[in-house]
């Protein structure tokens, strides 16, 4: 549809909103309160917020790069040090999540290699297959048979029993 430049043919109807005419010399109280609010409340709050944002922009910290300090292992905690027990448990849970992700990443790399190589996967993906075998064996040795409700104490006991069995096997072999 071409634009019609003849404004006289399509006149806009007059608006029914009356134009406010100032009759008094007294200022409008709404305008006065808006100005007071702007200078008393809004401007300081905006200034403080912008200052905080500038400070945060200088020191950006990313939550997904959070680094926790290493805490003593459960075997290093004193007998009644419940805070140490709690921290060791939290450290163990983080370590378990990291180890689980390592296994998943290695498994994904092997899957990608199999997909990429096709029928030659047995020759060309031997390194990835060996790495996956090592990583899963280490994960199974540390966390296997603990179940979903495993914790640092049961993991420590499992490691202790495994070490005792290895010593017993060495003593019998000697």
Beta fraction of the residues? under 5%
Structural class: mainly alpha
> Topology as H/E string?
HHHHH
Low-confidence stretches: none
Helix content: 55-70%
The overall average pLDDT, rounded, is 87
Total count of strands: 0
Protein name: NADH dehydrogenase [ubiquinone] 1 beta subcomplex subunit 10
Subcellular location: Mitochondrion inner membrane
Membrane topology: Peripheral membrane protein
Main location: mitochondrion
Please give a quick description of this structure.
The chain has 174 residues and is mainly α. The protein has helices spanning 29-58, 82-117, 121-124, 126-143, 152-173.
Structure characteristics:
single chain; 174 residues; mainly alpha; 5 helices; 63% helix; 0% strand; electron transport; NADH dehydrogenase [ubiquinone] 1 beta subcomplex subunit 10; NDUFB10; mitochondrion inner membrane
Structure, described:
- The protein contains five helices and no strands.
- The relative contact order is 0.05.
- The N and C termini lie far apart (100 Å).
- Helices cover 63% and strands 0% of the residues.
- It is elongated.
- By secondary structure, it is mostly helical.
- Helix 2 (82-117) runs antiparallel to helix 4.
- It has helices at 29-58, 82-117, 121-124, 126-143, 152-173.
Helix/strand layout:
Layout (H helix, E strand, L loop, with lengths): L28 H30 L23 H36 L3 H4 L1 H18 L8 H22 L1
Helix pairs in contact: 2-4
